[in-house]
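hey can u check if this looks right to u? its 349 residues, i copy pasted from the old doc so theres a chance i mangled smth
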Amino acid sequence: MGLVSRFLSGCGAAIFVLVVLFLITATPVHADRGFDPGLLDKAVAQARSLERLNSLIVARDGKIAFAESFHGRGLDTPVNIKSVSKSVIAALVGIAIDRGLLDGPDQAIDLLFDPQVSNAADGRITGITIGNLLSMQAGLERTSGRNYGRWVQSDNWVDHVLSRPFVDVPGGGMLYSTGNSHLLSAILTRVSGRSTLALAREWLGDPLGIDIPAWDRDPQGIYLGGNNMAMTPRALLRFGELFRRGGEYEGRRILPESWVEASGAPRTRSVFSGDGYGYGWFLRNVGGGHTAAYARGFGGQYVIVIPTLAITVVVTSDTDTRLRVDGYGDSLWSLIEDGLVPAAMAAGR
């Protein structure tokens, strides 16, 4: 027997083990991560066909089933999360309440803004609560949409919001307005004596192990509440997982569980999408009896949590074209509702 033959004969068992190990490690990452492999492959193919999709992360039970960046952007590169920032601000409000800096959602905002409130155009401003700002039910004329430019060009963003005319009563219909979230940022700054950036880094960034870069500020130095924060897709996944796990992350309590539940309780409904809205989170029926809570930013930035399926999804997108023009938003929800939800349901728990 030659040298090679003797080697193969003596090492046959070892080679067999190595082959088996190779086959195991070559198995697609999603095979044991809680999704039907074939259905997930179809969903991934659908995702890759979306030209505006920059990144997609899909996790179940905290395990990443699929993660990919597109068009040369990395999953560890910070991106503008647009109005997903509103959900971050809402989380900070919940922590501030838990720490006793705020009384709770029913606290009126008038004393928190004195003397600005005394200069407001309408005395009904004193009827607005913290909860009204969180659920977009302040009743004030919106500072989003066509009014956004005029607002951010004003000399005092807080005064500008408080002086808007009432178009509904406090606690009435949903009027989606970045100004509401900015008032919350101003309130956090006032009651804590620290910047919203410092609070975000200490209360969320440090315990989640994520970086939160500085972002835009108003003329008075208050960090913009509800827009233009930056996070990496992987950081957004941790933020979503925080909510999916009821306010805990890696065994550490960061948010009160009661606040997570309050954030996901429907309080009003969007006139644009028809989806429900809680405290900084939209709510949508995604089929199969399951409800998704999602943070949404302009152009297709999403953190989507489906607690009953233990799913967390992160989507970042190109913002050059408005969603409603090309149907991109519908394509994203089709990816979730017709792709990922059935793939998870087929795999069971």
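DSSP finds twelve helices and twelve strands in the chain.
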